[in-house]
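[job 4471] stage=fold_predict status=RUNNING
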Amino acid sequence: MHSVQLRHDMMQALRREDDGQTFLMAWTGGVKAAQLDQDRWRLLPVLHDRRPHVNGFYTQSELARFLGERGLRFVAFQQINWISGSYLSHWAPRIPGEQNYSLSPSDLWSNVARHLQDARMRPRRGEIQGLTAEEFEEIIDDASEAERLAQLISLSLRNLDTSVEHVASFYHDELINQMADGNIEGRRSSSMRDQYLYEHVHSFFLHLGAVRDYLAAFIADQIGKDSHAVDSMARLIDVIRARDIESSALLKIVQSSAYITPKDPPSTKWKASGWLDTATDLRNEFVHRRTYGQRSAERMGSLRAADREAGVFRYFRPIALETSDRDVFDVIVEHYEKVSELLYRCAKASGHNSSIPQLDPNDVISVQVTRTGS
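[job 4471] inference complete, writing structure tokens
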């Protein structure tokens, strides 16, 4: 058989992105704002001379007021970095009632898990030297139930962030594309790219349920129940009683938010209510009963004017619930805010340290310095 040799005279270097960074604000409708410096922001896209443009400069408060008055909703800050050709994105969602979003709910739960791991590993520091990689991984993975569940909550929240980030990017791209095509009069259209939107919407509701259930298991473990048996919010609500709520700071948060309420007497049980009940039903709709994009109304989107005179439009994509007059991203953001607020408050009230871990020099086993570039 003739062997194939690579042609070393036919080479072309793959392009690598230069190091750089950008800081963005994501809004519903696909609108974004990019920071130039301290408090100067540029708005995009804005229709000018029949083409999408970047427009600016504005302060953050000016943009918030302008876009809020036109029915758009702030979703998250996004820090994007390119380092040595690698793309990194940090997504920090809006937390209702909070002014500083630098630490996301996922960050807080990751910090909880890390502090629990550090406390567990510190007495075993002397064992680590000389272990194989497999032996070291076994020790790392031998986590307490609280540590394990805190890490699962963090990972699921990060997945939730990523799905919202992707929906925001889809909307932003569609907004620019529709503007560039001159399709600003509400004509509905679709493309092969829609499959990505269906996937991201499904992912959101899938991870919303995972976050909910891992939180329930974490609470179950705290109140002395078997978190492997009580591994969902439905099972937790079924087994809790008033004394459990009185003994649990996290259950008090859930109860005070009206997400659980007592069943009618003489029952001593509780039931899901309010947002938790609504979110669970919506999650079941798009994970178990059908997938987003199955209904005809969901298969096409259009542009709607937020301020036609100013050239500000939004992308609109229906979600077929009782009617088709809701936008799927708007619905996602409503639930995203609720779950972000709940998990943020629960991390703070978990009874564990949720601050950023500080590096202890005694925990450093070895240091390797790698230089890139010239």
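[job 4471] summary: DSSP finds eleven helices and twelve strands in the chain.
[job 4471] exit 0
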